[in-house]
Design brief:
α2 packs antiparallel against α3. β2 and β3 form a beta hairpin. Helices cover about 40% and strands about 20% of the residues. The chain is an alpha+beta fold. The strands form 2 sheets. The chain has a 5-stranded mixed beta sheet. Strands 4-10-9-6-7 form a 5-stranded mixed beta sheet. The chain binds copper (II) ion. The site of copper (II) ion has 7 residues, from loops.
């Protein structure tokens, strides 16, 4: 009788715990549901968020299964009074095949979804309405607005601003004159390395007006942590006003290497 009551309590406890986990995972509107990710501020961000949530859900299901089996084995096969040495077994071929094949299937599933989404997310075509050449240099950023022929550049002590019109697809072309950096806007849920001698590209459509922070995500030297910038997603009119402002300040042309320009070296 007592054992039956305890079992019922344990079962209820598990059900409550599982319910709490599932409930928090079902809604993507809170940071628990997003598993620590910020709210996506781009159209593409939702795809990345789904991949992230799906991976965690898969891990959770596998985890619950493994923990459940462990606890069951510990409880059901615990040593009871009068038990001698348990039966010794080895080389269970079906079991060994299972724990070789099961992880392989899991890795293949993760690989498939990652590859599928990565192919879509890194596809760059002519559908962007404008493009920005992002120059990561030791240790700040320069933004060349390719269509308008203006630029902005920062310093470690004075981070630059990247302005983008809302709901317009933008292609980022990432270049570096020195070492490897990484262009990361957490709210965009997208990050890509900036590699000297290579022309990495990706396109996103910011769909939320507001101010977001950006940073370098590749340890690149002494002032790496100061490689910050701000992103302003604004209306088309505000964007054009800002471009006109940059023109007025004389920031016309293209800055291939922010550092060289700042040091007065051509
Ligand atoms: Cu860097």
């Amino acid at each position: 009788m007592k054992i039956a009551v305890r079992r019922k309590q344990i079962r209820t406890g598990f059900a409550v715990l599982l319910g709490a986990i599932l409930l928090s995972g079902c809604s993507i509107d809170n940071q628990y549901g997003r598993v620590g990710m910020p709210e996506p501020a781009t159209e593409e961000g939702n795809r990345i968020l789904s991949l992230w949530q799906g991976s965690w859900l898969a891990a959770l299901i596998v985890g619950v299964l493994v923990w459940g089996l462990l606890i069951w084995a510990i409880v059901a096969y615990r040593r009871k009074e009068g038990d001698g040495l348990p039966e010794q077994t080895r080389y269970n071929v079906p079991l060994e095949i299972l724990y070789t094949v099961a992880p392989l299937l899991m890795v293949l599933a993760l690989f498939y979804f990652t590859q599928r989404d990565q192919t879509i997310l890194t596809k760059v075509d002519d559908s962007s309405s404008h493009s920005v050449n992002v120059v990561g240099w030791r240790w700040s950023w320069a933004f060349n607005y390719e269509n308008e022929g203006v630029y902005d550049v920062g310093t470690p002590g004075n981070p630059p601003e990247l302005w983008l019109p809302v709901d317009e697809k933008v292609t980022f072309e990432l270049t570096s004159p020195d070492v490897i950096h990484s262009f990361w806007i957490p709210a965009f849920l997208m990050k890509m390395d900036v590699v000297p001698g290579r022309n990495n590209k990706f396109a996103v459509t910011p769909n939320t007006e507001g101010e977001f922070m950006g940073k370098c995500a590749e340890l690149c030297g002494v002032d790496h942590s100061r490689m910050l910038f701000n992103v302003k997603v604004v209306t088309r009119a505000e964007y054009e006003a800002h471009i006109a402002d940059l023109k007025e300040r004389g920031q016309i042309g293209k800055l291939d290497s922010g550092r060289a320009k700042l040091a007065g070296v051509s």
